[in-house]
Design goal:
Blueprint lengths: L5 E9 L7 E10 L4 E5 L6 H8 L7 E6 L2 E2 L4 H5 L2 E4 L11 H11 L4 H14 L15 H13 L5 E5 L7 H16 L3 E6 L2 H4 L5 E6 L2 E6 L1 H5 L5 E7 L13 E6 L2 E7 L3 H14 L4 E6 L2 H9 L15 E4 L2 E3 L1
Helix pairs in contact: 3-4, 3-5
């Protein structure tokens, strides 16, 4: 990897009162200019703790953090000047409008007034925020507030841009616009650290991924490298009636079950038989719906972290073969 804007080595942090568990346990991570590095993990995996150490809010017990060559542990004040951060919680902007909040942050970060105004307008348009640009903050939705926080972070981006769950509360249409802006930040030369649990959507924009579980990086690589083990496999998702359990055929390898949704992987060569099996159950009324899609990074993630399938992090699969009672669509 080329010279890294962010370089983390051997990072360890233990919080008191947590039965001795390490929030971060020997984490190594690099983010180079022009790259989006995704940090994936479930709640409690240690993602936000890592971010808080990068920006100097929390001091590590062991390890090193360098931001553009600056020792961020010894000199967090200098390192912080090179970083712009969108935290998990939105910055309160009561009394301001989105436009005014974005412009104020741009000026605070040293941006030229004319350039900050131009960039603000660019972000408002790109994120489809024009309708709310001059609405008082107390009257905007959580999703609009989240997008405003992203614009505040990136109106004058640092050399390192850290985004902690930037798509939370954002509607599906504007999430697509937001992902495009995240990709654009890296294409313009910034190093982007993207903290997320939205595996499917993040896969489309990241260059490199690190999967965090119980404070440790359990896998890292490009999306292609991480998904190599599941090439030639398909993922099948079942929507079950309340209280029902799937009676998977022998060719299916279950990977998760939650909220009346079951997930498994099957060899692509067994797709026809799986469709026939699922359609028969739809016709019998014991299955509400099924979808068959190529196996993805999400399947790798679930296998690695051993977590239950979380339907809240999964969007409707694009181009899936799906079926419901009396309906089949491609």
């Amino acid at each position: 990897m080329e010279h890294s804007t962010l370089r983390i080595r051997g990072l360890r942090k233990r919080y008191r009162g947590r039965r001795g568990a390490l929030a971060n346990d020997g984490v190594d991570l690099e983010v180079a200019p022009g790259n989006v590095v995704g940090l994936l993990g479930h709640n409690g995996a240690g993602k936000t703790t890592l971010v808080n150490q990068v920006v100097g809010i929390v001091r590590p017990d062991e390890g090193t953090i360098h931001v553009d060559g600056i020792d961020a542990v010894a000199r967090p004040d200098l390192a912080r000047r090179l970083v712009s951060v969108q935290a998990q919680a939105n910055v309160p902007i009561t009394g301001l409008t989105p436009r005014r909040a974005i412009e104020l942050v741009g000026r605070i970060r040293g941006g030229d007034r004319v350039e900050v105004s131009r960039r603000t307008e660019e972000l408002l348009h790109a994120l489809d925020l024009g309708e709310w640009a001059d609405t008082p903050a107390q009257k905007i939705s959580g999703g609009i507030a989240r997008l405003t926080a992203f614009a505040m972070t990136t109106v004058v981006p640092g050399r390192l841009v850290v985004l902690d769950e930037p798509t939370n509360d954002v509607d599906p249409v504007r999430r697509r616009l937001l992902w495009a802006q995240i990709r654009g930040l890296a294409d313009a030369g910034a190093a982007v650290l993207l903290v997320t649990h939205n595996v499917r959507e993040a896969e489309r924009v990241v260059d490199h991924l690190a999967i965090l579980d119980r404070g440790r990086v359990v896998a890292s690589g490009t999306p292609a490298e991480l998904t190599a083990p599941v090439r030639g496999s398909l993922t099948v998702e079942l929507d079950l009636p309340d209280g029902a359990l799937p009676d998977w055929p022998s060719v299916a390898a279950p990977t998760g079950l939650a909220r009346q949704r079951a997930v498994a992987t099957v060899p692509a060569s067994d797709a026809a038989g799986l469709v026939a099996w699922a359609q028969a159950r739809v016709d019998a009324g014991t299955l509400e719906r099924y979808a068959l899609v190529p196996a993805s990074l999400e399947d790798v993630y679930l296998t690695l972290v051993g977590a239950e399938f979380d339907a809240s992090t999964t969007v409707a699969p694009s181009g899936a073969l799906a079926a419901a009672p009396q309906e089949v669509s491609a």
